[in-house]
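For the sake of transparency, this paper describes our internal protein records without simplification. The remainder of this section carries one protein's record, kept here as part of the documentation:
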Amino acid sequence: MKVRVLALAMVLAAPAGAQQQDFSQVEVKAEKVAEGLYMLTGRGGNIGLSVGKSGSFLVDDQYAPLSDKILAAVKAITSDPVRFVVNTHWHGDHTGGNENMGKAGAFIVAHENVRKRMSAENFNAVFQRTTPPSPEAALPVVTFAEGVTLHWNGEEIRVYHVPPGHTDGDSIVEFVKADVVHMGDLFFNGFNYPFVDVSSGGRVDGVIGAAERVLAAISDTTRIIPGHGPLATKADLVVYRDTVKTLRDRIAKLKAEGKSKEAVIAAKPTADYDAKWGQGFIKPDVFTGLVYDSLP
């Protein structure tokens, strides 16, 4: 699981970063989540796959060099082609395969801010990385402001935008009948600090708010596909929400006292969580700084 999270280090450099990675040994694996619904893992964000009489439906599509492996994994489950891809946000480890999927006949669907960010050059201040605009063929062709519902494979698939959290274009995908939710990078499962991409409009309050919205709507039997990490339960999301909220409150208190970002980082407000939560892609000082910058 740590390998998947560490692979995020190249997200903001995609597609150039994708070209620098070696994908030859990556295996795309499918895990059945519910009848007709799977989670695919490889390198990058977890993929949701719905199969049935209407055709295949993907949530996110990882990196472009993995498209053939992803399509092969789909083909091992169903002979139906991929008809739709929904992007949970704009980062390259979730949208890198868009161009290939689009050329293969899929319609790309996402929040309007995903298309806006993919259409322009993006600079991330924390990592000092510039991501060039995506090619036209990779851009979502169907966009929405608040949400959209697809009736597909006998499912009611609700896709809805939430206030800025991981980015300003985050969407949650709910498979109503299957009782499964895909949260994209609003949820990093497996004891890792979240990536609040402030340069993409992300806000820690939005990460917490998204978790609370999902928790209010699901049951103890709901399965959650996180953006990264293993398949999750409601209990896993509660732990994640509570941890992020506790640390947000600590950092907010220090900021309200007038302390600078540097002083707050030096105060080590996450210290008692770092051994468990600070070993992934986002290190404790980076997390503290991002939370600080995202607070009003």
The chain has eleven helices and 14 strands. Residues 234-256 form the longest helix (23 residues). Residues 1-10, 12-16 have pLDDT under 50 and may be disordered. The CA atoms of residues 156 and 176 lie 6 Å apart.
